[in-house]
Write a structure and sequence with these properties.
This protein has 5 helices and 15 strands. It is elongated and about 80 Å long. The termini are far apart. It folds into 2 domains: 181 residues, Hexapeptide repeat proteins (UDP N-Acetylglucosamine Acyltransferase, domain 1, 3 Solenoid), CATH 2.160.10.10; 41 residues, no CATH class.
Length: 233
């Protein structure tokens, strides 16, 4: 247990540049408090003190705004950044060195007993507002984009974006020793890429039909900025 606690503090220091000292992390990070409170509740749960475990879990939820069922399994090095609104269900399993941002749900899709919550592999990053639902497996080294909704298994070393989540295999898989993948600006825009390809095909067809003359179109510039004069704003 002590080793887990030390690993949790180290995870915060490694993945949050705003953390200036171990003391600050221990005293001021509700995500860490939620994880530590869960470790106490989880021990009570497995020692068959179920009511006490649920009570501790309820106190921690009120204190941190993070709702983790005491039966959930959380590996070492879990970092819940900003914490507010995170929900982790009873049969969820979270691996080692996972990073979870605010508003994330690891939820169920069934009222039946048994495994009904996600299993998250090692070194996974789950972006703000993402929902991972049902007994799905998120492979190690993967990244779930902000606000994505994951309802099917995700292979290792993948990126998931969109609703429902679309799985993209990494062109360059990350090693187990690589730094945590935290840059949301690097997520692919599947809809934009698809629409761009469709627009190019339409342009080619119009040139063929109009004898090489392209009709005016509404589209963003090369920098991705739309011109405002074409719209009523």
């Amino acid at each position: 247990m002590l080793e887990y606690l030390r690993r949790d503090v180290a995870a915060v220091r490694e993945r949050d540049p705003a953390a200036r000292s171990d003391a600050e992390v221990v005293l001021c990070y509700p995500g860490l408090h939620a994880v530590w409170g869960h470790r106490v509740a989880n021990r009570l749960w497995h020692d068959d003190h179920r009511l006490a475990a649920r009570f501790v879990s309820g106190v921690v939820r009120t204190w941190t705004a993070v709702d983790i069922h005491p039966a959930a399994t959380l590996g070492p090095g879990l970092f819940i950044d900003h914490a507010v609104g995170v929900v982790i269900g009873e049969t969820a399993v979270v691996g080692t060195d996972v990073t979870i941002y605010q508003g994330v749900t690891l939820g169920g899709t069934s009222l039946e007993a048994g495994k009904r919550h996600p299993t998250v592999g090692d070194r996974v990053t789950i972006g703000a507002g993402a929902k991972v639902l049902g007994p799905v497996t998120v492979g190690s080294g993967s990244r779930i984009g902000a606000n994505a909704v994951v309802v099917r298994d995700v292979p290792s070393d993948s990126v998931v974006v969109g609703v429902p989540g679309q799985v993209i295999a990494r062109s360059r898989p990350r090693s187990a020793t690589a730094a945590t993948d935290l840059d949301e600006a690097l997520l692919p825009d599947l809809v934009g890429v698809t629409l761009g390809a469709l627009q190019r095909q339409v342009d080619e067809l119009e040139r063929d039909v109009n004898g090489g003359v392209r009709t005016p179109e509404i589209r963003p510039s090369a920098s991705g900025v739309w011109k405002g004069e074409d719209f009523s704003i």
